[in-house]
Write a structure and sequence with these properties.
Elements (H helix, E strand, L loop, with lengths): L8 E4 L21 E4 L2 H4 L4 E4 L3 H15 L3 E4 L12 H8 L4 E6 L4 H5 L4 E7 L2 H11 L4 E6 L2 H23 L4 H21 L4 H4 L2 H12 L4 H10 L11 H16 L4 H11 L4 H9 L7
Parallel strand pairs: 1-2, 3-4, 4-5, 6-7
Antiparallel strand pairs: 5-6
Helix pairs in contact: 2-3, 6-7, 6-9, 6-10, 6-11, 6-12, 7-9, 11-12
The chain binds NADPH dihydro-nicotinamide-adenine-dinucleotide phosphate and 1,3-dihydroxyacetonephosphate.
Function: Catalyzes the reduction of the glycolytic intermediate dihydroxyacetone phosphate (DHAP) to sn-glycerol 3-phosphate (G3P), the key precursor for phospholipid synthesis.
Organism: Paracoccus sediminis
EC number: 1.1.1.94
Length: about 300
């Protein structure tokens, strides 16, 4: 919807039965500049493709369709770590499409806000600086302001890890543990995010930017966030709609595996993984986090 301000857009979906009003984005009717198709080959005529799939669906999608995508400029919006490969979306894309230029578009941005034309700032990450600059210009609009970086690992890890911490923040609020505890989770969660990202080659300043701290702040404080709402439901011991995409649940399990492999201390992510698996109660998770050995900040 936002990019149609810059020129014609082709939107591919596997099921287009919804016409111009997708129930995943209630209240938004697609503008006339958007052609909707369920023929992927019609959308892949373009040189620049934005892939807006959930992180756990991207690998399967690429296994089926990489042939049509290779050689293109591929921009992923997915915020997660693939559970089977333990990598972010950029590595999945680069492996499946070795001739493609791979980029990541991430940062604090609810789809509903962008579709309403509300001002939003994002990070466009591409290891190829010239390609990144071109994509930054192609994807910015008067209300969508993109900052660029070549630190792809930092940008995609910030987006993936903040979802895990947002679940923890939701648990705190859902369980009635208070705003002070939420601030502690956000701050210590950010320490965890920065620690793991540094071990995986990210630059600390990227984690402090829109894709890390910016998105962490948004997602931990807004009930618009599905990750936050899922955590709230866990904390309040209420059911949650399993059809809703909650990236942080699978990513917490991927992070737990990565952290174990790298001997990296990620206590909040570990608790979220166990809560999501149902192998720990909220009370036990809170007690575990509060009674760890005392340490320097
Ligand atoms: N929503 C948001 O505000 C934001 C989301 N993101 C990130 O973008 C990614 C996508 O999120 P979002 O769009 O909200 O997710 P949704 O679950 O709302 O939509 C996912 C879309 O991907 C399609 N899809 C899922 N699996 C497949 C598959 N195997 N093959 C083809 N299409 C598939 C779905 O099709 P169908 O409808 O047919 O199921 C749907 O169109 C996530 O990683 C999310 O974290 C980033 C910023 C903001
Ligand atoms: O990533 C998002 C906002 O930047 C969307 O968050 P949720 O997936 O938690 O709704």
């Amino acid at each position: 919807v936002a990019l149609s301000a810059n020129g014609p857009v082709t939107l591919w979906a596997r099921d287009t039965g919804w016409g111009r009003d997708n129930p995943r984005l209630p209240g938004v009717s697609l503008p006339g500049g958007i052609a909707v198709t369920d023929e992927l080959s019609a959308a892949t005529q373009a040189d620049m493709l934005v892939l807006a799939l959930p992180a756990q669906a991207l690998g399967g999608f690429l296994a089926d369709h990489a042939r049509l995508l290779d050689g293109k400029h591929l921009v992923s919006t997915a915020k997660g770590i693939d559970l089977t490969r333990l990598t972010g979306p950029s590595a999945l894309l680069a492996d499946a499409c070795p001739q493609a230029t791979v980029a990541v578009l991430t940062g604090p941005s609810f789809a509903a806000d962008i579709a309403r034309g509300l001002p939003t700032a994002l990070t466009l990450a591409c290891a190829d600086a010239d390609a990144g600059r071109a994509l930054q210009h192609a994807l910015s609009t008067p209300v969508l302001r993109l900052y660029r970086t070549t630190d792809v690992a930092g940008a995609e890890l910030g987006g993936a890890l903040k979802n895990v911490i947002a679940i923890a923040a939701g648990v705190v609020i859902g369980a009635g543990l208070g705003d002070s505890a939420r601030a502690a989770i956000i701050t210590r969660g950010f320490a965890e995010m920065t620690r793991l990202a540094a071990r995986l080659g990210a630059r600390p300043e990227t984690l402090s930017g829109l894709s890390g701290l910016g998105d962490l702040t948004l997602t931990c404080t807004s009930a618009q966030s599905r990750n936050f709402r899922y955590g709230q439901a866990l904390g309040a011991r209420q059911p949650f709609d399993t059809a809703t995409t909650v990236e942080g649940a699978a990513t917490a399990r991927a992070v737990a595996a990565l952290a174990a492999r790298m001997a990296c201390d990620m206590p909040i992510a570990a608790m979220v993984a166990r809560l999501a698996e149902g192998t720990m109660t909220v009370d036990d998770a809170a007690q575990h986090l509060m009674t760890r050995p005392l340490k320097e900040e």
